[in-house]
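step=encode ok
step=design start
structure_in=
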């Protein structure tokens, strides 16, 4: 048998489909009217908007005001334009390109970390500076690949204990924040090599648990309120650079020579009246910077030009600071002054390293200008 062919009147088929199309269009119109009156569409719109903002790393405070979400496209464009992470100066200095493993945030429009950050646990570096961020979240423990935490010049008041679970952390910079203490759990970061806690102004001690940090070669705790060299620092056997300038030191421990690998020692702007003779045992010391205003006794061998040691004695000329009624303004101006002073000394010391010889003393003159 051959194929069976069924023949219909074409007009009948056409009429049937036209009827079906009309019914479907009428249903679509009613459904659109129903959704327009329903709250579900509004919820869906808000949800998609929030998801888009999170994907772009925009803080919730930017688009949610008093519990209401502004879903206008123009607002999204404005927020995105103003809130995109800007390359940090550190990244520029290193000449590195943007990387999927690096987070970079800067600017005072950042008051909190983006919600989407907790999903990016593959990140190896955080470079966050000059923001109004106050809190480092506890979920930082999820970033097991973290190598560098570069968090200077923010408003951070404390570090979470969970930071101690970052076993691969190499560098921690929390300079010029508002820290008053360092969590002892940081001592569990046994691979840490660089620690910068300078410029917090109120920091008075480091926990003994940091004695476990045997890989540390660089410690900067300048511009704080240390009255003595922390015991944990003396136990950092590989330490090469120690900056404890601009504190309240009256003397140095007699066992300072435990730091056998120390090469650079910055002590200026303290209240030291003498230097212990045990410093002569620091055979690898090549740079020593002190304030000479109060020094009355020091080993003469430190000033011997035949040694490779560059001994710098700064003669300070302090100016009386105007007192402000607002305590916050005093704190801010003090941090800015110390930050400028630190940047100046950094450039000065880098220049000294390139010289074959240095002056026997240096007079640093401070001045101000009112417009």
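sequence_out=
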């Amino acid at each position: 048998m051959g194929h069976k062919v069924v023949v219909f009147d074409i007009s009948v088929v056409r009429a049937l489909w036209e009827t079906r199309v009309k019914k479907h269009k009428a249903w679509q119109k009613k459904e659109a009217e129903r959704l327009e009156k329903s709250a579900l569409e509004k919820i869906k719109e808000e949800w998609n908007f929030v998801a888009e903002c999170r994907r772009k790393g925009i803080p919730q405070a930017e688009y949610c005001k008093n519990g209401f979400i502004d879903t206008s496209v123009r607002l999204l464009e404005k927020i995105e334009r103003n809130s995109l992470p800007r390359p940090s100066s550190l990244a520029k200095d290193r000449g590195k390109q943007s990387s999927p493993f690096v987070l970079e945030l800067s600017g005072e429009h950042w008051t909190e970390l983006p919600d989407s950050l907790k999903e990016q646990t593959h990140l190896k570096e955080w470079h966050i500076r000059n923001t109004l961020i106050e809190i480092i979240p506890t979920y930082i423990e999820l970033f097991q690949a973290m190598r560098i935490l570069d968090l200077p010049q923010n408003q951070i008041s404390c570090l979470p204990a969970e930071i101690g679970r970052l076993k691969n952390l190499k560098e921690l910079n929390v300079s010029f924040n508002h820290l008053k203490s360092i969590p002892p759990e940081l001592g569990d970061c046994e691979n840490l090599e660089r620690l910068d806690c300078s410029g917090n102004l109120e920091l008075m001690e480091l926990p003994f648990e940091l004695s476990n940090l045997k890989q540390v070669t660089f410690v900067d705790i300048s511009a704080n309120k240390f009255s003595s060299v922390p015991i944990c620092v003396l136990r950092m056997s590989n330490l090469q650079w120690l900056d404890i300038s601009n504190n309240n030191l009256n003397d140095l421990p007699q066992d300072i020579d435990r730091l056998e690998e120390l090469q650079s020692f910055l002590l200026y702007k303290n209240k030291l009246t003498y230097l212990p003779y045990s410093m002569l045992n620091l055979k690898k010391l090549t740079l020593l910077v002190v304030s000479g205003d109060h020094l009355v006794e020091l080993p003469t061998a430190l000033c011997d030009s035949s040694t490779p040691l560059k001994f710098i004695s700064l003669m300070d000329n302090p100016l009386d600071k105007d007192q402000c009624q607002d305590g916050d303004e005093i704190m801010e101006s003090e941090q800015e002054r110390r930050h400028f002073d630190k940047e100046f000394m950094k450039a000065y010391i880098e220049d000294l390293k390139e010289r074959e010889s240095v002056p026997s003393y240096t007079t640093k003159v401070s001045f101000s200008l009112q417009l």
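step=design ok
step=annotate ok -> DSSP finds seven helices and 13 strands in the chain.
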